[in-house]
Amino acid sequence: MEKEKFITEQHKKARSFYRILGPVLLFIGAICLIMASIDFFTLQGFEEPKFFWLFFLSLPIIFIGFVLTGFGFGGAIAKYQSREYAPVAKDTFNYLATETTSGVKEISKAIQEGANSTQSLICYKCNGENLIHAKFCSYCGEKLVQICPHCEEVNTADALYCNHCGKSL
Predict the structure, then answer these.
(1) Do residues 117 and 124 touch, judged by C-beta distance below 8 A?
(2) Which residues have a Cβ under 8 Å from the Cβ of 118 and sit 6 or more positions away?
(3) Domain boundaries defined on the chain
(4) What does the angle CA 88 – CA 89 – CA 92 come to, to the nearest 5 degrees?
(5) How far, in Å, are 90, 91, 101, 160 from residue 97 at the CA level?
(6) What distance in Å separates the CA atoms of residue 115 and residue 102, rounded to the nearest whole number?
């Protein structure tokens, strides 16, 4: 019964008004356009058209009629389209779910393996494996990182140039 509250009497009256006025304006605009076209394309020699101004009148009338018709019949059109598209969307979703299952499993496995692996930093002097955030080697005490004096970004200890700004370290 929520639907009854959403679509009020005023809404129903406006929709009925648009369903009548929109097509009427479309019809009037089309008649004006036809009259202007006949007048323009049946000229003899250098004769001036009498109803050329109807071109300028018909196009806005057709546009307004089209918009009002859309307001009047928009709900019905949307319901029709949803009934047409929903089965296609469902079939597409099911197809994608079926066909991508193995790929999703592989990606999930790779993510889990990446999360479980510990990243390490290798000392350039003794090749010792250290924690990724270590600043000094736990085997030989050598400095593992150096801070750029120009941009203050972290670089490996053996870097000659900053990985961020490119200046000499």
Answers:
(1) no
(2) 131, 132
(3) 2-108, 119-169
(4) 85
(5) 10, 10, 6, 50
(6) 20
Whether the CB-CB separation of 33 and 54 falls below 8 Å is answered with yes
* CB 168 within 8 Å of CB 161: yes
| Spatial distance between the Cα atoms of 62 and 138, rounded to a whole number of angstroms | 81
Q: What is the pLDDT of residues 20-78, one digit of tens each?
A: 999 999 999 999 999 999 999 998 888 889 999 999 999 999 999 999 999 999 999 99
CA distance linking residue 88 with residue 79, whole number of Å: 15
d(C-alpha 147, C-alpha 83), whole Å: 62
Q: Cα(106)–Cα(104) distance, rounded to whole angstroms?
A: 5
Residues 6+ apart with CB under 8 A from 102: none
Query: Considering the entire predicted model, what is its pTM?
Result: 0.49
pLDDT digits 0-9 by tens, 104-143: 888 888 888 766 656 778 888 898 888 878 888 999 998 8
Q: What does the block give as tokens for 48?
A: 């001036």
18 near 67, Cβ under 8 Å?
Answer: no
